[in-house]
Write a structure and sequence with these properties.
This protein has 204 residues and is mainly alpha-helical. 65% of the residues lie in helices and 4% in strands.
Length: 204
């Protein structure tokens, strides 16, 4: 993991800064499995509850088979239960799709997963059993041609001194979340510590 090596080898970074940078970088490469598991477990629990309720309704339906009005009501409730279960299943499938897509997009070294995802024709992608996607690489390659700034390292230029609290800096702030650049951070920290302080304070 080159990004981690880079953080650890920047001489002018304090321990706190190293920890801060590692925490900012981690989400780019690792998606907490809990993000998927939490929803998945909730859906499983809901389906169990609905199955139990269906069983109770079946039993009740047999007991009141001569009461047409009550039987109709039970059938209505069973229909509602089926809809809830179907919706829960759809939610699980979508969650799995989104989770796999985010992981795969990170393999393409995108800077902002949400931004790139919004530009994709997601409805034309197919998630395969091995968690690869049919049609994704073609779309990503087209985006690289038209919007290459969304991929790879952010390029910045200029390391002038800060003036009246505002840095004379023409590049993108390498401490900002969207334009994080560890190499540029190390360069500015070494060449212009005061500018680094200002940029860090203005980072969002």
């Amino acid at each position: 993991m080159e990004w981690l090596k880079e953080i650890l080898t920047i001489a002018d970074l304090s321990i706190e800064d190293r920890q801060d940078q590692i925490q900012k970088e981690l989400p780019k490469y690792f998606i907490p499995k809990e993000k998927f598991n939490t929803v998945n477990e909730e859906v499983k629990a809901l389906k169990v509850q609905l199955d139990e309720r269906d069983g109770q309704l079946d039993t009740l339906k047999k007991q009141v088979k001569d009461n047409s009005e009550l039987t109709a009501k039970i059938e209505e409730l069973q229909g509602e239960n089926k809809k809830v279960k179907d919706d829960a299943e759809i939610k699980t499938i979508k969650q799995k799709f989104d989770f796999a897509l985010e992981l795969k997009l990170r393999d393409f070294k995108v800077k902002n997963v949400k931004a790139v995802k919004a530009l994709l024709a997601v409805d034309k992608l197919k998630l395969n059993d091995d968690e690869t996607f049919t049609g994704l690489e073609e779309q990503v390659n087209k985006l690289k041609e038209t919007d290459d700034y969304l991929f790879g390292d952010t390029t910045v230029s200029g390391t002038g001194p800060p003036e009246e609290g505002k840095p004379d800096y023409k590049g993108k702030n390498p401490w900002s979340k969207e334009t994080l650049n560890l190499s540029e951070q190390g360069k500015i920290l070494k060449e212009n510590p005061e500018l680094a302080k200002v940029l860090k304070s203005q980072a969002k």
